[in-house]
Amino acid sequence: MESLSGYYIICGFSRTGRQIAKEFQAKGVSFVVIDSEFESVQKAQSQGYTAYQGDATLDESLLKAGLKRAICIVAALPSDGENLYTVLSAKTLNPGIRVITRASTEEALQKLQWGGADAVISPYITGGKGMVAGTLRSQILDFLDGIISDSDRPLYMEEFLLNPANCPFVGQSLQKAKLRSQTGALVLAIRRLDANLISGPTGDTILMSGDTLICMGTAEQLRSLNQILGPINSQQLRRPKNN
Question: Which of the two ends of the chain, N or C, has the fewest CB atoms closer than 10 A to its terminal CB?
Fold first, then answer.
């Protein structure tokens, strides 16, 4: 593990952790797994993953897994309490690391956010909302699913960071920049440097230094956008998911 850097750490190799590892492997993302159970570590290693046996709630285990060299940690442990301890330890040892975790209740979700998690996912809440959306807005979901699953022309999502050193559109409005007409890609949202999120930006929205553009389009469209905006480092385009 000492030779690795800029990778992800998955804490817990239960059903959630296994699915995350599967997705990371498919996308070519470098990662290591931590789990306290020897059998889980063996299972991870048998699938070709780098795995380490240890308690992810302990500082010692996180440091041995190379927390200070990692760029993101995913806490997918069985209980909210374990995930909270992991979040607190990770942010204390490496304040700059991105922390993603799961929560089983709304109360736990809030506490994990207060504890420093950058993103908290609640499978039960998200799943419930998705089922309601499928019930009440089935035609919209069917339409989106038809676009996303089209094997001939799939859609992807990507993030692009605006750097005034190499982006000529900083200071211009979206209408003047004509990103859509130049590339065909759609700007879904803009994250300002102060973390303010602008959903559905209009033509009058000004592009500012440090903005992160969240865009959707085909691989060809996003590659065209890549040439003029300068993307955040990512290894593979990501298909959007409709939950």
Answer: C
